[in-house]
Amino acid sequence: MKTTIDRITIALLATLMAVAFYQCKPKGPAEVTIGDAAAQVYVAPGKYDEFYNIVSGGFNGQIGVYGIPSGRLFRIIPVFSLSPESGYGFSEETKPMLNTSKGEVPWDDLHHIALSTTKGEHDGRWIFANGNNTPRVARVSFKSFRTEEILEIPNSGGNHSSPFITENTEYLVAGTRFSVPMGNKDVPINSYKENFKGSISFVKVDPQTGHMSIAFQLRTPGFNFDLSRAGKGPSHGWFFFSCYNTEQAYTLLEVNASQKDKDFIMAVNWKKAEEYLAQGKGRIEKVKYAHNIYSEKTHSATSTMETEVTVLDIEQLPDMVYFIPCPKSPHGCDVDPTGEYIVGSGKLAAMMPVFSFSKIQNAIAKKEFEGDFNGVPVIKYESALHGEVKKPGLGPLHTEFDEKGNAYTSFFVSSEIVKWNVKTLEILDRVPTYYSIGHLSVPGGPTSKPHGKYVIAYNKITKDRYLPTGPELTQSAQLYDISGEKMKLLLDFPTTGEPHYAEAIPASMITANSTKIYKIEENENPFAAKGEAQARVERKGNQVHVYMTAIRSHLTPDNIEGVNVGDEIYFHVTNLEQDWDVPHGFAIKGATNAEILIMPGETQTLKYKPTEVGVVPFYCTDFCSALHQEMSGYLRVSAAGVKTPLKFSTGVPDDATSGAGK
Amino acid sequence: MKKIIPFLVLGMLAACAPDKPKQDTEEYAQEETSKPNAVAENAMTGKGLGQVTHVTLNTPLEGERIGRGKAVYEMKCQACHKLNDQRVVGPGWSGVTKRRTPEWIMNMVTNTDMMLDKDPEAQKLLELCLTRMPNQNVSIGDARDILEFMRQNDGEK
Amino acid sequence: MKTLKPSSRWAIALSALLMVSAYFVPLWQILMWAPQYPEGLEMKIWINTLTGNVKIISALNHYIGMKHIEVSMFPEFSYMIYIVGLIIGVGLLTALANKKILLWIYVFLILGAGVGALVDFYLWGYDYGHNLDPTAPIVVPGMSYQPPLIGTKQLLNFTAFSGPDVGGWIFMVAGVLAVGTLAVEFFLSRKKIAVSATLH
């Protein structure tokens, strides 16, 4: 009897132990929004969001335009990537936009956004963006939300440290991610130290037109440039670049470029560079790079091949560039709104240094250098340091600022945003992100006058945040309220591509200037048909030009005969509408390129090469009116060599009115 | 700036207008100022709804206007309106100046959306044609030129 | 008396047979969570192999200089099957041969194997967490990453848990059965001696 009881007791004890073990297993990360989060992000039907969020699309080569606080996606602006949806890069007018010294490059990796500023504050004029893969920078208009200019960057191995801008948008920079041998040289890869060089382009921005041109390039020792920020206020005239791989490794960088305790932040006195340039200290180098501009007057782009850049060598020209040691592979290099503090985020470091601009100036004046790197002075770490943020988190990447003197740093490894005070370096709050945040954005965060209110996290890992869609998932952004002491998670919203940096700007600075239509009177496209009377078809050799008009709900001409297999047919479609939000589309069966969308008052051209005999329908693709389905026409294609008379019409039953336009 | 048109009078739009069209205030606000019931009165008198409440027509026709009016017609109107009495998308223009008051025509051209929403005559035309006349962003000055061109089309000298 | 009660013989046979499960289910588990791994990562230790997200764990740990975890790192996997086999054999022999001395040996073996395994695991964990590659990308001065022996522990951004898996639990039940049987035998035999003493 007793033994039985003993055994039962033992069995019970074992069970209890088992339960106890399972109890001590930790739970997964909790996920809760607090209080009235739903009300804070609710934008009632018909109401507008408070901010535009201009979000890089990463590997989709586009820019996403979202509303904050709702997280709603409004538009995807094609920049470096073809867009069969709008015809960007497919229409004859926009094809030159993607031209480079290597021919058409129809895609790029768009990482960073810079909104134009005046006196350090947002001015709502332009969006700049970088192409990381085939080095390029782009300018997008805040009026039309269209890409207006793309400038290729020569001597660059990948344009990552870009397109950060100076206080008055005097310059944007384009720093090479990878150092490469200059001038397309065929050298062994292991001659890195000897042959590989870094290159940073200062691109001048015309204050009226926004047109970009390379003012000069800095030639640097060979290592990698990651990110950068311009000085502002007292530090206006300076630019700061984070550098990694000062080990000058060229293989297995994840280990070999992570050996030194400190890499550099490179401080550039660009006013000094301007002086050297004016004194003729630069040397002209022969290069080749494309410069593409889209004109709103002609509704078309031109591509020009440029052949020269002026180079300033930082190893030769003194007092222009200084290195500041910064712990372990700095990524972000962010300047606070006052312009005094520069935050270095060593992504492998266990603390974050904050440098002081005035201390840097002092150290330069007193020559407090610990040595030099290829002749460029290296300022003593302690002499430049304002202080270190102790134990901030793991894997610091980027820092944005609010209007109250606080900084918000993203931590990739520990997957959190940490709020800290820029002056006291005290950590104030931390919130988890889901999951592994990369960039973050506070409205106006990089400017002298942050708008504050929110911080948006752009996460690198999505996992279980949304309904699964196979192995490829949407990207996850998160909105936090930062108006109080504690950060509050308000909203998850999905994004397209893979967002890197983004900026947010008050809608009130943008909406009033937004283009509604293009005035048909001002359309200078040489192929425009400004009115149905000008609609016609002309043959020039084997090229057939169709000057077509579109208005609700017909295309003119809509019956076209007399073209042959092998002809090149150009459909120049002019949208005669002059009302807001009445685009027409044009598509023709079997076209091997795309469709085109034509905004009111605009002319766009689709090229079509018929390959077989028959009658081919074409139609309007943008549902424009009750009779949209009727907005269509036929193209008769005859065999090569068959002399079908050229004939076109609209609305007139065929009665052999050859050549008549009515 | 464009030419002065002394015979046009501005009637203020009723407060309920959803989106006030831009007004060339100087030129058109000379004779009368705010008049809340103008819209309603216009509708009663066959003048349509909009800024244009009174148009003075001159004889003989003003040649300069006819030329400009024709150019605007070809760019913005011809796709739907023929000059004979044939209806294509919209009605042909032949005889239009006999059927409608000059004010109604100019309001239809410049204040299209509101006319289609509220004016009984415009609504009858919409029922007939089934395609909403688009707002072609025609200025009042351009509309006056078009009117002159219409008069010429109807045989006036 | 040198023989066992029939119930003890059945208990030991059951204990030995329970341990056969060690060949079919994992014995130990290490679980890890991080903010970006809400679903967790797991490593299961079997009698002769490792399963679970071993490759992912190794890939993550190499950033801080930890060795790549591979089955070949553990010579234990090559002989553990024989040790467990031996223990099962002794257990069955105890039940069949009905010798108390064998019960003592069986209990000693089973406890020895359990303690030995934990000591061995601790030593490996110490080496794994301390013996770091000095050229690793992330070197946090003074930081080591020894996994917990039993229970949970925070290692940088990861919360790690270590504890028995199904096989481990069965093994423990087998051990408890063996020890319990020994206790009962010991307790009863003392009682019997006491009884016989009063009888005489």
Automatic annotation (TrEMBL), chain A:
UniProt cross-references to SUPFAM superfamilies, sorted A to Z: Cupredoxins, Nitrous oxide reductase, N-terminal domain
Pfam family for this entry, one: nos_propeller
Cell location: Cell envelope
Record Gene3D superfamilies: Cupredoxins - blue copper proteins, YVTN repeat-like/Quinoprotein amine dehydrogenase
Keyword Membrane attached: no
Keyword Metal-binding assigned: yes
Keywords, in A-Z order: Copper, Metal-binding
Entry's Gene Ontology molecular function annotations: copper ion binding
Name listed for the protein in its UniProt record: Nitrous-oxide reductase
Organism: Chryseolinea serpens
UniProtKB/TrEMBL annotation, chain B:
Positions of the Cytochrome c domain: 64-154
Record has Nucleus as a keyword: no
Alphabetized UniProt keyword annotations: Heme, Iron, Metal-binding
SUPFAM superfamilies per the UniProt record, alphabetical: Cytochrome c
An example Gene Ontology molecular-function term: electron transfer activity
Pfam families in UniProt: Cytochrom_C
Signal peptide, first to last residue: none
Family annotation (InterPro entries): Cyt_c-like_dom, Cyt_c-like_dom_sf
UniProt name for this protein: Cytochrome c
Organism: Chryseolinea serpens
UniProtKB/TrEMBL annotation, chain C:
Keyword presence, Transmembrane: yes
Record field: transmembrane: 12-34, 77-96, 103-124, 166-188
Alphabetically ordered keywords of this record: Membrane, Transmembrane, Transmembrane helix
Highest taxon, organism lineage: Bacteria
Protein's recorded name: Copper chaperone NosL
Species for this entry: Chryseolinea serpens
